[in-house]
């Protein structure tokens, strides 16, 4: 698998600290190898739109769609608790 980003994702990603960006890069490497990697905690976020959610840190999540052999990254944001 591979991944690509949307312009919306890129704009949101730039707003995060270097630490969160680094953590995301680590997590996305796990994603392309195995969506079930434990620290990702990937799950279907919205059945209707086929959007998935995965963990970056305790309070940051990223959202994506699976399109063929590509994870299309849609957004990254703080997780409301």
Report a brief summary of the structure.
The chain has helices at 7-14, 18-33; strands at 2-5, 43-46, 51-57, 60-67, 70-78.
Derived from helix and strand composition plus strand pairing, the structural class reads alpha+beta
CATH architecture: 2-Layer Sandwich
Overall geometric form? globular
Gyration radius over CA: 12 Å
Order of helices and strands: EHHEEEE
- Enumerate the strands of the largest sheet in spatial order, edge to edge or round the barrel: 1-5-4-3-2
Q: Low-confidence spans: pLDDT under 50, at least 5 residues?
A: none
Number of strands: 5
The CATH topology comes to: YaeB-like fold
- The end-to-end distance, rounded to whole angstroms, is 31 Å
Number of domains: 1
CATH superfamily: RelE-like
Overall pLDDT, averaged? 97
Helix content: 25-40%
- Output the number of helix runs: 2
Protein name: Addiction module toxin RelE
Organism: Candidatus Kaiserbacteria bacterium RIFCSPHIGHO2_02_FULL_49_16
């Amino acid at each position: 698998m591979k991944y690509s980003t949307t312009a919306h994702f890129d704009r949101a990603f730039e707003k995060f600290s270097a630490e969160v960006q680094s953590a995301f890069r680590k997590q996305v490497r796990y994603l392309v190898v195995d969506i079930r990697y434990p620290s990702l905690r990937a799950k279907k976020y919205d059945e209707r739109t086929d959007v998935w959610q995965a963990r970056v840190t305790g309070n940051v999540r990223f959202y994506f769609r699976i399109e063929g052999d590509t994870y299309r990254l849609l957004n990254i944001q703080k997780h409301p608790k």
